[in-house]
Amino acid sequence: MGYSSTPASAPTAAPADRASAYKNRGAFKQDDLRRRRGEQQVELRRQKRDEHLAKRRNIGVARRGTGAGVDGSDADSDLSDIDDLVAEEDEHKDMPLPMRLQTYTALVYSSNESEQKEGVIRFRRLLSKEHNPPITQVIQCNVVHVLVQFLASPDPDLVFESAWALTNIASGDTEHTQAVLDAGALPHFIHLLQHPVPKVVDQAIWALGNISGESATLRDLVLNSGITPHLVRLMADGSQAWENESLVGNVMWTIGNLCRGKRPTPNWDLIYPLIPLLARALYAVKKVNELQDTLWALSYITDGDESTIQAVIDTGAVTRMVMLMTQNETSKIIIPGIRTLGNIVTGNDEQTQSAINCGALALFRNLLLSHRQKEALRKEVCWALSNITAGTTEQLQAVIDANLVPLLVDMLANADFKTKREACWAISNFATGALRNPAQLRFLVRQGVIKPLCDLLSSSDVKVLNTTLEAIEALLKGGEQDAVQRMRTGQAHEIKNENAQYIEEAGGADKLYLLQDHDNEEIYAMAFKLIENYFDTGSDDELDADEQGPAVDAQTGQFVFGQPAGVPQGGFSFQ
């Protein structure tokens, strides 16, 4: 098969509906690449995060002696002593549940403060069962409003136990959370953020985290209740609260829930003051779980617009985040970290450059090399790289200099399908952007990208086909530009698109022909255009001559086969 010397125009014989499918195709600007990529990220961003739940139950034993109060007091040193008695001897453990609930309800409604406290603790322990706690049955005992009333008690022990029980009720289904709100708990929990006992504050934050994690509506309800200034005051620089690991972890997790959701997004004016707390936590927190919560919160914030991305960058959090991901191999740190970096590079070119300046590319290379068996992680890295390769010429060069292109090509050829799909996006964006710098496109071709791209033309995934065709179109355009340039500079006597030749040798041209029968109109149109523009199918004159058959002698009326060429006028001349 030959190659057309110049791109052919689209044939007029194409049906109107077919032609319209590719009208103005490829007309998008380079600046649109990252935005277009963002439109395809919904599945990645919405996938279930098993390690990071929107709601959590406190199923541990009562915690004591966690340090001085936020005002310097040691008010919580003897909290929940009665819990020890209940834990040592629970005469009700073999009692049927309905009878236990009746007994505990009577204790809660008692006029004796000691019995009230015992009843609350028993309810709390029942709600702390690891599997299937009887939340609905407890609500039906009509004790939720009593537990809420106990939040105003002067006894910090009773307040703590009541808050714990309500936290676990709010960790249930929507109707369970709503029952806590209907009982008037929200303003009490907000008020408890000023309590002098750290454990009470910690439990109140936990409860608010569960409420805000239920839905965007309840998230906004908590935000509008004034939680932001309380958290800013509580976690001020130098505050003793930073020494309480449990409290810090719950604050970071709750901030994450306050930032979750895009339908609608939260009121960012109420979120911005909390971002410095997250940046501070990256330096102050040592435990993996608390760092995980912090990074997930940052990922939700950076999943907004450019202003939220910039707010995170301005705190200096990106440098610390890259450092933490370099030092920790656990997926609890790496996955939310990659997600945050990937969100940052969906921003403008300057924001993308800030991530590159902080060492993101070297980090990505190390992750790809050290986690070859973790396809989920490699997929996330490819997703992040797909946004960087949608950037400037200088950013494409940074990807080249970081030696990431060979790794992307390798994953395009050998990774599982989901990773291939993300690698294909990264390669396609690179190829399109490299049209501005022919040397970069030639570098991509030298890395062996054409064969795995052509292999993907057999995919049944329409989005992958679309992305692959865009990459191949960019390679063909670049090959045509190179051919014209060689012709102009005298390096060649004819225009020969070497990339078209490589694509045909890799079986790509044959697959493009087959795609002209694809059910998807856009795929058909793209394949049709590439065949017409870059692969010579033979001229119409040649086709007509073949269809006419052998010549007919005008005098005899017989077919003439193999008729020799006529003698030129004046005869042959041999010199």
Note the main attributes of this structure:
single chain; 575 residues; mainly alpha; Leucine-rich Repeat Variant; two-stranded antiparallel sheet; elongated; disordered N terminus; Armadillo; ARM-type_fold
Textual characterization of the structure:
By secondary structure, the protein is an all-alpha fold. Among the domains are: about 95-195, Leucine-rich Repeat Variant (Alpha Horseshoe), CATH 1.25.10; about 375-535, Leucine-rich Repeat Variant (Alpha Horseshoe). The chain has helices spanning about 15-20, 30-40, 40-45, 80-90, 95-110, 115-125, 135-140, 145-150, 155-170, 175-180, 185-190, 200-210, 215-225, 225-235, 245-260, 270, 275-285, 290-300, 305-315, 315-325, 330-345, 350-355, 360-370, 375-390, 395-400, 405-415, 415-435, 440-445, 450-455, 460-490, 500-505, 510-515, 520-535, 540-550, and strands at about 550, 560. Strands 1-2 form a two-stranded antiparallel sheet. Strand 1 (about 550) and strand 2 (about 560) form a beta hairpin. Residues about 1-30, about 40-50, about 60-80, about 540-550 and about 565-570 have low confidence and may be disordered.
